[in-house]
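User: My collaborator and I are trying to settle a disagreement about how two of our proteins should look. Neither of us wants to argue from intuition anymore, so we agreed to look at predicted structures for both before our next call. Could you fold the first one, then the second, and keep them clearly separated?

Assistant: That sounds like a sensible way to settle it. I'll keep them separate. The first protein:
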Amino acid sequence: MGKDKTTVKISLILLLILSFYILWPYASAILFAIILAYFTYPVYRWMERRTHKIIAAGNLMILVAVVIIVGIMEGLRVLMRELIKIYEILPEILVGLDSIREVEFMGYRIVDEAVESAMSRVMNYLTGLGASIPHIFFSLLIFFVGYFYFLVHGEKAYEYIKDRLPFCDDNKKRILEKVKLNVDGFIRAEILIAFAQGIVGGIIFYIFGSPYPLFFAILIGILALIPVVGPSLVYWPVGLYEILRQNYVIGIAYIVSGICIISTMDYFLRPRIMGGKAKIHPFVILLGFLGGIYAFGPAGIIIGPILLSLAIILIEEFKAECKVED
């Protein structure tokens, strides 16, 4: 009997490893579908009361698909327009960089190395993009199908996970409440603040005469998710570049407005948006942001910090339960 149990355990472990190996390429699509289903579930419930759960989930899935497709098309249109603008003024940018191209640090020409590295990465990405089209297609398919079923069977999935958590009933309830607070807090605080900073940053760049304010608005919004540095990775380089071009007033204006307006928005908006929501430590967000992008691609911007915060919650509750048992 003992040998049979050992065989079953080994078989289960092997099956789990194989299942993980099979699902990993589409982990980001599945996790993103779960997160989106969680936040759109109230809308689904409202629609379900007026139609049928299958119709409600199908309509919501179509709506999300339209929003994503329109967003991607509009994003590509804006990106191409901004890239054309950058290409048109590229000779002027290169002339402006000539004054600092000779600057060396530990034997490296910083600007030349940075430009070559950036161009190499861009070319490698564009080269690999064609080969990634099948994977992108199947990821989108899994995302939409998963999103549909997570809406329809969301409550069953919730109960399934709840029943199988290796904790007592009181701890299960507390864990799920903490999870909800952390996920809500991250989305409401980090995403909304980043969105607001991107809009304000775009307006500032437009006022100061930047030829591509929308590009910088999107860049600031994305980088605002990185704790501590965030938008400063945009307005400091742009400001210093303008100063090197002897546009001292504009360069200083970018830096001062970035510090006094864009970056300080975090301190004013966060307490009002967070309210009683749980706060994720900035270092956890940083690790989740960078590690999430590496592991899951662009979706890792959201998935990474949330997964790390959930792992911390489970570890803390496991330690607390172990203490009680001792």
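The second protein, kept apart from the first:
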Amino acid sequence: MELEKNRDRFLGTLVHDLQNPLIGMTGFAQIMMEKSVPKGNDAKMLSIIRDSGEKMSSLIDHALTYGRLNSGKAFLILSDVDTAEITREAVAIFIPEIEERSLSLSINKEQHKNWDFLTPIIARAERELLLRAVGNYLSNAVKHAKTRIAVTVEGKEEGVLIVVRDDGPGIPPDKLLQVFENYYVVPGGKQGIGIGLASVRMIADMHKGKAWVESSRGKGSAFSFLLPGRRKGMERC
């Protein structure tokens, strides 16, 4: 227990100390790209610096959110949110990587061109935390999917259910409960620091909901997030 507390304190200090030099690095790289109009290898190298900085910034952001959730002092700022819109927004972040890997992606069986017409499904939640939870699920799916990712958002009697499915290698049965633990990474899986799914679990707990996974080796995984207490009459037919 004390080891985990020390690790959390170290993580919190580290991410804060990384923020300022990272902002400077990505900011100046962007300025150089815009003002000097570099060409050839110079443009490529500046683009790599900027993109790498943005990826590191995302990791820091995830770490700060994890620290907030794991502190035991976090509280929710609830409002009525459209879970379909939040899902669409979370997916949009990963479109470049999904296209680069030639993955198929759908939301409620609809392709990209039809996402603006998804039926709104309203729930009571903290918008940014829900966006983070869905984004963590999607990040995990993009890492492991072979050919496709399918996302569903639906209102049920027990609440709003969001599921992210992939056709990746799957998870061993004895590891299914462990994947949501702090700092846990499935042996032999893609690289990570093990806080993404742990954050999803904490976000679900804070909303009095549930986060879980169903998976079979070689047949992919389905990561689910349930927000309880759907507000009836708020879903458009």
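Some points you might bring to the call about the second protein. Residues 231-237 have pLDDT under 50 and may be disordered. Helices lie at 2-35, 40-70, 83-93, 95-100, 127-144, 196-206.
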